[in-house]
Amino acid sequence: MEKGAGSPSVGGSYPQKNAEILSSQYGINLFLAGLLLTFAWAVHAVGISKSHLLSYLITLMLIQLLWMLWYLCRSCTQRSLIRDKDTHAGARWLKCGITLFAVITLILDSFKIGYYIDFSNCLSPTEGIFPVTHAVHTILQVYFLWCHAKDIIQSFKTLERFGVIHSVFTNLLLWTNGVLTESKHQLNEHKERLITLGFGNITIVLDDHAPQCNCTTTTLCSIFSQGIYYLYPFNIEYHILASTMLYVLWKNIGRKVEHHQQHKTPFKFHGITVGMIFGLIVLTSTIAIVVVYLIQIGRSKIKSELALTMFYLHAIFVLALMCTAGIVALLIYRLEDRSLDNSKNPARKLDAELLVGTAAGSWLLSWGSILAIICAQAHPKYTWYNLPYSALVIIEKYIQNLFIIESIHREQEKVNDSIKTLRIVTISRGSTLSLSPSYKEIYNGRAAADSGEVPCLFKGSICGRENDGDGGAKEETSQENSSAVHSASDFSFYSRNSVTNNKRRILKNIAAFLFLCNLSLWIPPAFGCRPEYDNGLEEIVFGFEPWIIVVNLAMPFSIFYRMHSAASLFEVNCKT
Questions:
Q1: What pLDDT does residue 447 have?
Q2: From what superkingdom does this record's organism come (predicted)?
Q3: Residues 239 and 310 in one domain
């Protein structure tokens, strides 16, 4: 009995923590089983075909669909109940972003359905069932995240933990499947490009998963097969965003939150013109570079070398600008004396961990390139540009991570009580009566009324009219003193406010510029512009297969880093 009468917090937290551990272990095992199945299909393991992998993924999606339907039905029946919400989770701009990616994912699914219809004679039925199931899964999941991403679940907590973690790892497996399919396609193109660069000593064995039958309509088959790989980057981003939002939902289960409202910080274009202009210039030039790169690479040795040189020079210039902008922002932060918000926040903690964790992918590639340049015996001219490029990638992400993490942890500036309400008309001798008294004047007036005195809201005007006769001289003196005090305080306030606004404007422009730069740097690797594949130097030093394994493991994290950084910088811009 004594044990049962112990602390309720300890007794209540133990089953909750136990359920968290059990559900996380369930999710990890679910993911590992799917990962091994994916790997077995990729290496053509005996007895494992693509239909086995797709059947596993279809089963996981159907289980998640059942759970989401159950949760939505239960939410409808309990609509009258007041639920706690995590105001930091599931921001509107994040929901809009995932909706955009989901729409493109639905187009991808329609292409896969068309591809299956054209090759239905020699494809497994699972390849037709998978895109249909995935389309339904995508629609329902986006609706679920729009309506319930902010929920803090307090009932059926153990069951909900398993449902949410199942959804997290289902999306991670779908992300892994998309990454692998897209990487295999990129690898086939990369092997063909190496021949044009003169690396004939590398063994070229194409990994072809094409159907072993003729297409019913050749033109449509070509459109579907080529279009699918241009849409995969959006599908990959959709699943990783969905898994992060669901992970925050899982961390919030059973959480006790303080009941205070977060101030809404809508995005505004006002004041960020400079940052937007420079960012759009970088974005436009990057798209042009990617188009030229994809056209020229693989045509001939000279054209391939020119394409690589052009890419490196452009990237070096952009990364140098981003480093400079990040350093300026950090210097501004050092000049400000503002405390950090260290309150418990799963969404913010996950953002910081993802920034550092996914940056490690590109850091690994950069250090590999630096080591290859140092150790290689022969150095084609274009490979020397890879050295400053790789160094700047490391430095830029280091600086940008510091800026973003500090920005999302900084407390929003609070307005002082004395300047909450500005006076419309400054009180001076002989001036008209102010229509909007300051906050302190109202407060002092109330205090005077409580003590039995007549409140004097506007110094020198109301009180002066009531004290005529002998109080005339005192009235003039009071008015002059009051005017002098107000003038000095107003000048001090406006000067401080001007400096603060200038700093804020600079920070907003930097955040806007970095936002567009990160979107720009997401485009090249997402759409096949990958010099880590194409320059050939790393393959000679490390060997073709070891380096390709490193690139295929690290590149998805590097691509996700840019999109996640862009999302975080958008939030920084809204918050600043």
A1: 42
A2: Eukaryota
A3: no
